[in-house]
Write a structure and sequence with these properties.
The complex is a heterodimer. Chain A is built from 2 helices and no strands. Chain A is mainly alpha-helical. In chain B, helix 5 runs parallel beside helix 8. Chain B is globular and about 60 Å long. The chains are: A mainly alpha, B mainly alpha.
Chain lengths: 81, 226
Amino acid sequence: MNVEMISILSAGIAIGLGAIGPGIGEGIAVAGAMDALARQPKATGTITRTLFVGLAMIETMAIYCLVIALLLLFANPYVHA
Amino acid sequence: MAEKTSLINAPIVFHIGPVPIGLEVLTTWVIMAVLVGVAWYGSRRLSVTRPGRFQVVLEMAVGFLGDLIRDVMGAEPDTFLPLIGTLFLYIVTCNLSPLLPGVKPPTASFETTGALGLIVFCTVHILGVRRRGLVGYLRTYLQPTVIFLPLNVLGELTRTFALMVRLAGNIMSHELTIAVIIGLVGLLVPIPFMALSILVGLVQAYIFTILAAVFIGGAMGTIEKA
């Protein structure tokens, strides 16, 4: 196991594990928004906007993991190629 | 290796004195020139009684942004429309620029979004101090109790950082996805993904704009601090 192999493995693990939490979180958020829309169809604008902002907040966690994975793959400071 | 580093680091096009000018900066300049040119051309012959088609389109854009700011911030949009509207228009143009063949969107690099995040960060504090006074603004960091001071400061920094990483990460990852799919299957299959990238670009620009409005509104006390 040299540095390159460890980097590739950990990039896969980072984005794989890091996608679980935001996936569950976004599912819960969308389920809540659907519920709210079914109860209050008139509040569509507010609910949609709040949902988008909330989803962006949740998705940031996955994006962090993605950035870590991309850094490991393409800009790894410990690999001198 | 040059191909690999270009994902994170911009290729240098030319130098002005000692300052290297990357491809992103050049694209940014072109987009700025296009936006200014379109706005100048559209507002050249404004008419109340007989508005042209182009004027109606521009008025729709300004009205949409004004409604957005009024809804999110709960304040009249006049003060904020120049900054937040320009952010939205610029980011939308950047995000949709890869639809032209050979153009790499400037928002896919962390330098561009870092600069945009820094603009929002400075605006939040300047407007907050101007609205509440220095002492009054600093006192908001002690809410609800003094113990929350480090958390508030940390939250201030991380939310700006998240603003920067979210935009660049989303756009960059979509560029990368399309590149990988083009590498796997060349013809026709990448088209739905490119169509999806239009949606992603619009949504990300919308989210950046809303979050900037929420942050500024929170610092000015027009809405609850986010």
